């Protein structure tokens, strides 16, 4: 039982640890902040599909601060990509 409890405690601490690791801009916003916007990034082939009216899957998502315009990092996580499409 003890190791399980310790794992649970570690999981509960993870959001804090991840927020420390997330890049932030000079305003202090990270990519989860409401002022951050997610921009899907398509490769040249994806843009061609977009112009043909298809819905390509972005290669990655770039997060940008809406206040200062600084990049808050790029995510290739399929969950993040699905969220912006
Ligand atoms: Zn900013």
List the helices and strands and how they pair.
Elements: H1 2-21, E1 36-41, H2 44-51, E2 60-65, E3 71-75, H3 78-84
Antiparallel strand pairs: 1-2, 2-3
Zinc ion (ZN) binds at residues 25-27, 29, 65, 67-68, 70.
Strand fraction band? Answer: 15-25%
Helix content: 40-55%
User: What is the alpha-carbon Rg in Å?
Assistant: 17 Å
Record field, number of beta strands: 3
Mean pLDDT across all residues, rounded? 83
Distance between the termini: 42 Å
- Helix count? 3
Give the overall silhouette: globular
Oligomer: single chain
Secondary-structure content class: alpha+beta
Give the H and E element order: HEHEEH
Biggest sheet character: 3 strands, antiparallel
Indicate how many domains the architecture comprises. Answer: 1
Bound molecules: zinc ion
What do you see in this structure?
Strands 1-2-3 form a three-stranded antiparallel beta sheet, with helices on one face. With 85 residues, the protein is of the alpha+beta class. The chain is globular and about 40 Å long. It has three helices and three strands; from the N terminus they run αβαββα. 41% of the residues lie in helices and 20% in strands. It has one domain (23-84). It binds zinc ion. Zinc ion (ZN) binds at residues 25-27, 29, 65, 67-68, 70.
Based on the model shown, name its key terms.
binds zinc ion; 20% strand; 3 helices; 85 residues; alpha+beta
